[in-house]
Amino acid sequence: MMLTKDNLKRLLPYISKIIENPSNEWFKNELIRSLNVDNKQMVEDPRIREIYELCVRKIIYAQAEDFYKTFPIEEIKQILIKDFVRADTFKRNNEFIDFALAVHQQIENIVITLFQQVKLREFVSNNAESAIFRQDLEKPYYKGKNNVKGLVSFTTLEFATWTYKQKLKLILFYYYYNKVIPNYDDFNKVFNELNKIYIIRNESHRGTNEIKNQNTKDILASIFESYNRHYFKFLGILEDFVTRISPNIK
Predict the structure, then answer these.
(1) How many Å apart are CA 197 and CA 223, to the nearest integer?
(2) pLDDT by residue (tens digit) across 176-202?
(3) Counting CB atoms within 10 angstroms of each CB, which of 166, 169, 171, 247 has the fewest?
(4) What is the pTM of this model?
């Protein structure tokens, strides 16, 4: 076999499979020794890095498959898995804005897909006068609960005009809370946490002249002040969102 670049690339999966096996630890050691690198050089050697990256990606891909294993919408599952892997790659490279973008793309994909469901739109159309959708009604949607009127407010049933935030609020109401909201504060907290990821995602559109309000500026300043913690926080928000909505998607 000629040692072309393409042939060598095809060889990499076999090498990674061999060195993943604990019984082949000797082979990994011999491979490192044959490349004449010590432990310090290993980190910098591009040959080792490529093999290492391939092994890590296989592990993360398996974790992503497990994360979305019970997610019921099969038609978007593979792209969700790929974006999960992309988010991890950006996390390991300390590329926070791109990481937030990849996390948001998973949430957005789910929101947009669920928003297309006929039963959801029929529910909105049939309950357009309910307090949950109306700011001008005095009666709370659920008696004895904190007032949640206008929680998912909209001005038209032309669904094509709905903003992403309106769609997200509807998905939270219908799937995350399964149409039973304990109180406004709880709903608003969940929405605001998801919205933080959306705000960071918007920072990926460099060159745009978006005018930010003071609240958005404060959120950005707070997150970037300790952005390393938000790698884990954003993954936790994603996990909570997927876990809570999955059982209610039928």
Answers:
(1) 10
(2) 999 887 777 888 899 999 999 999 998
(3) 247
(4) 0.75
Burial class (CB in 10 A: 0-12, 13-18, 19+), 102: buried
Q: What is the 3-state secondary structure (H, E, C) of the chain?
A: CCCCHHHHHHHHHHHHHHHHCHHHHHHHHHHHHHCCCCHHHHHHCHHHHHHHHHHHHHHHHHHHHHHCCCCCCHHHHHHHHHHHHHHHHHHHCCCHHHHHHHHHHHHHHHHHHHHCCHHHHHHHHHCCCCHHHCCCCCCCCCCCCCCCCCCCCCCCCCHHHCCHHHHHHHHHHHHHCCCCCCCHHHHHHHHHHHHHHHHHHHCCCCCCCCCCCHHHHHHHHHHHHCHHHHHHHHHHHHHHHHHHHHHHCC
Predicted local confidence at residue 21, as pLDDT: 76
